[in-house]
Amino acid sequence: MNMQWLEKLPWDILIIGSLTLGLAPFSPPHLIEKLGMLFNGTLGRPIDIFDLLMHGAFPALLLAKSLYSVTHLKPPADSQ
Question: Does residue 78 fall inside a structural domain?
Answer without folding.
Answer: no
